[in-house]
What we know:
Elements: H1 3-11, H2 19-25, E1 37-40, H3 50-65, E2 69-72, H4 86-96, E3 103-104, H5 123-135, E4 139-142, H6 146-158, H7 177-185, E5 191-194, E6 203-208, E7 212-217, E8 224-226, H8 234-244, E9 249-253, H9 260-270, E10 276-280, E11 284-287, E12 290-293, H10 304-310, H11 314-325, H12 328-336, H13 360-373, H14 376-390, H15 392-400, H16 402-409, H17 428-432, H18 437-446, H19 456-466, H20 475-488, H21 495-500, H22 509-521, H23 529-536, H24 538-547
Parallel strand pairs: 1-2, 2-3, 9-10
Antiparallel strand pairs: 4-5, 5-8, 6-7, 11-12
The protein binds one RNA strand through strand 7, helix 8, strand 12, helix 12 and helix 13.
Amino acid sequence: MDRNEELAELLFPEITKTIDDLEKEYPARNLPEGAQVTRFAPSPTGFLHTGSLFTAMISYTVAKQSGGVYMFRLEDTDTKRTIEGSDRDLIDQLSKFGIVADEGYFPEGDKGAYGPYRQSKRADIYKTVIKELIRRGRAYPDFCTPEDLDAIRKAQEESKVLPGYYGIYARDRNLTAEERIEKIKAGTPWVIRFYSNGDHERKTKFVDAIRGEIELQDNDTDVVILKSDGLPTYHFAHVVDDHFMHTTVITRGEEWIPSTPIHLDMFRALGWKAPKYAHLPSIMKLDHGNKRKLSKRKDAEAAVSYFLDAGYPPVALKVYLMSIANSNFEEWSIANKSFDLNAFKFSLKKMSVDGALFDLDKLHYFSRELIARMPLDEEFEAVKEYAKNHDEEFFARIEANPEYVKKILNIEKERKNPRKDYVKYGDIYPLAKFFFADEYDKLAKAGFTYKEGLAKETVNACLEEFKAMPFGVEENVWFDFIKTVGGHNGFAVSNKDYKENPAAYVGSLSDIAEVLRLAVVGSTQSPNLHEILEILGKEEVLRRLELAKLA
RNA sequence: GGCCCCAUGGUCAAUCGGUUAAGACGCGACCCUCUCAAGGUCGAAUGGCUGGUUCGACCCCAGCUGGGGUCACCA
């Protein structure tokens, strides 16, 4: 028996399959021309990052718009950093954005014919490939301890040479099969490294779907492909998973650009066709005048949950992210009067290459538009769902009187230019609190401060007269009544009159309206007063008018 | 530090060698108006620097500068 053969057998006696067997098990997909297979492959190490959502959304869009397949693969090879339950959270949150995988890992079980879709369950697949690589002399066991590796790096730093495990610095690269076998038999701990034939004096080129041609130093380091815990490193897992899953486009963050030569090197060694790469820009944040990646630790908006908890409609975030991804989306959106992300033709080529600063103002703009345009029933359901999870008090009120809340949400909504004052669902209740009698009573108890210079008698007289206001009539009829009351009490009945001779009046038309507004709403600002009064109803309005009087 | 990516207003950005250098957010003014949110009109605001190529450069090339990324048994 060939010594490498013997080594492979010694290392992985339990592996009986070959790469050919795997090829048969995972045959090419039968998809129409042009259909792309993409994947989102997060590590279950924490919450869903805004940048990850961006990547997932693009992967999903590329697959869907090409009639292909979008997969979800769990990259749980770093057992130390794995956070229990985060796989579920990731999937749940993604689903809130409508990003649900066609195939892949699901907490309740895999879906699809190219699994398993969690890497910790694919150990035998990796080992099958590695076993063959060892036979071919393209992978080998490395017996370096962390201390050995440290020493190598230090020496390299001192002699100012490129750090890394490569060439002459790859201590165990040229051990003979006999030496290897001996060490293994002696129980020396090992990892498996890839045996690179690369030369960093040379270049490797590849075409990035977003950036175009990229030229990098060829890989020559013998990267670890199988860790001491028997699980692969990212580099190797990416190559074998995306090969056997037949991924056609790798969408991943731009931080992976420098390691692409490693991946290409391995694809070459295995004789496999490399997929297309699309390296996406990172989402940035301005910090003390410098751009930096959105940071999980420092930035609340790095967590998708932040937006969900605040009550931004998920579509709003998606629309914002799309406006970053393809800046022509906004023009399309205006031209088509639509925010329909499915109808918009996304293009990887049109993606910008440098990282956008996260712009909360712009998100707010989209969010406000989206909420305003949302049909009432849809908005109501979304608000209810939000309140259920984030605002018990509001939720109780919604349950107690859903129709009342609907009327509140519907204020100035059904018109060409709907009212746009909610950026997020969380904004609604604070602005609508006054509609609830007990909340109004709290305001009334604290007392109202009417415009300076208005006599107590004037205010009270107005409030008393307001009690006769008509309900269920056209707005202009009602407003004429308000003007009349103002007239009785020395207010100008038009702002024009007031401007011409302010001294002749106790106040303007705005002032008399403010008296009413303050008395009923408890604030000098509110949406359309007429609608508010109709919603409150005559009885409650009369009650408030009495309570609002000055003592 | 080596290597790589990037460079148009405050932000997102269009232009693909000849333009008054689009548009959106934000900002300002005015109009509308019972307040606010809207809406309408108008406005301020952009090609990092230095060389080259060219009849002509925001666009092509080089260098510089600046920003970002990467150099793990993490992904």
